[in-house]
Amino acid sequence: MTDISENEMANTLRKNLLDVLDLWISKEEQLAYQENVPIAQVSSELFNQWEDFYYPESDSFKLAFDERERKILSDFDKILNHINDKTLNNLPYITDFIKTNDWQVVNKAAIDTKKRLKNTAANNI
């Protein structure tokens, strides 16, 4: 068994979290996910996958994202949690969820978050 370095863990965490953000951005990928994994409840999976990787208190997270990026991700997390709390007991199947205002709010927030992260990265060069 090989040990994973802190940097490797941080890089994996960063990739996984950004992949979830990309999934929130793409309606087409969400629908393809549902088609490819019919037993999944993709609407729920979107929220759960974010929770799987969003641990801002962890050392790996702090290594994976700088302070400005963590603030940007925190803003998205607040929106996501608000929508999750609203829809928790009545979360529609993805084909219906993508037609709701709640999905639109999270989708727009994901798009904005990705842009803000890119702008932060560009400013770090």
Characterise the protein shown here.
- The protein is mainly α and 125 residues long.
- It has one domain (6-123).
- The protein is built from seven helices and no strands.
- Helix 1 (6-25) runs antiparallel to helix 3, helix 1 packs across helix 7 (101-123) and helix 5 (67-87) packs antiparallel against helix 7.
- The longest helix is centred in the last third of the chain and has 23 residues, at 101-123.
- The radius of gyration is 15 Å and the shape is globular.
- The mean pLDDT is 92.
DSSP, total strands: 0
Biggest sheet: strands, sense, closure? none
| Rg value | 15 Å
Q: Number of helical segments? A: 7
User: What proportion strand?
Assistant: under 5%
Give the termini distance in whole angstroms: 37 Å
Structural class: mainly alpha
Could you say which overall geometry the principal axes of the C-alpha atoms support? globular
Task: Indicate the low-confidence ranges by residue numbers.
Answer: none
What's the order of the H and E elements? HHHHHHH
Determine the mean pLDDT: 92
Give a brief outline of the structure.
The protein is an all-alpha fold.
Task: Describe the SSE topology.
Elements: H1 6-25, H2 27-36, H3 42-53, H4 59-64, H5 67-87, H6 94-97, H7 101-123
Helix pairs in contact: 1-3, 1-7, 5-7
Keywords for this structure?
7 helices; mainly alpha; 125 residues
